[in-house]
Amino acid sequence: MGKIDPRVVKTRKKLRQAFLDLLKTRKLSEMNIKDLTNQAGVTRGTFYLHYRDKDTFVETIMEEIIEDFYDSVINYVEFEGNPEKMIPQIVLDRVFEYIGESPEFFITLLKENDAEEYRMLFSDKLYDYILEHVNYGNSIPVRKMPKELINNFLVFALLGIADAWVVEGKIYANHYMATNVAKLFRSELFIEVGLENFFVSDAE
């Protein structure tokens, strides 16, 4: 596959950043192409060269950021020292670093009704990593628990803690948050379903 024109990459980065900047003052439903192009410093014609309409743009950007988030925070480690069996962990230090750089996106994901389908995407991807994490061990306990129960707890707990952290001015360092949230996610329930080492801190 050929390389993407650097001008295309640059324009899409500008529009993505404009989207994130506008989320500071607007809901998804209030977003419009004029504001996006003005914020990005590109013309409407340029916008339509890359995206069919506003809805396509929002869908693409939301999905891209969720994908980028997981690419950034997931780390694969050997299962019981076997390099042929690699399982994912979520490094919480990276979670708070990523959220700290784009807090408006995650606040939108947590609180807006219009973001429900993307919250579901975020949740479903998390569950896929959970199943992959327990794949080589005993996956039965986690599968016995209703997906909605464990996913809702994890998504709203993680995003809710991050939201409060941002609102309070990020007064605690990423590492401090990661270390303590990792401890919170080591309850009896997590041990029972084999997820006590799914959320980790860089120090571990």
Automatic annotation (TrEMBL):
Keywords linked to the UniProt accession: DNA-binding, Membrane, Transmembrane, Transmembrane helix
Domain of life: Bacteria
TM annotation in the entry: 149-167
SUPFAM superfamilies per the UniProt record, alphabetical: Homeodomain-like
InterPro entries, per the entry: Homeodomain-like_sf, HTH-type_Tx_Regulator, HTH_TetR, TetR_C_Firmicutes
Record-annotated DNA-binding residue ranges: 32-51
GO molecular function, one term: DNA binding
Sequence ranges assigned to domain HTH tetR-type in this UniProt record: 9-69
Gene3D superfamilies listed in its UniProt record: Tetracycline Repressor, domain 2 (1.10.357.10)
Cross-referenced PANTHER family: ACREF/ENVCD OPERON REPRESSOR-RELATED, TETR-FAMILY TRANSCRIPTIONAL REGULATOR
UniProt protein name: HTH tetR-type domain-containing protein
Organism: Vagococcus carniphilus
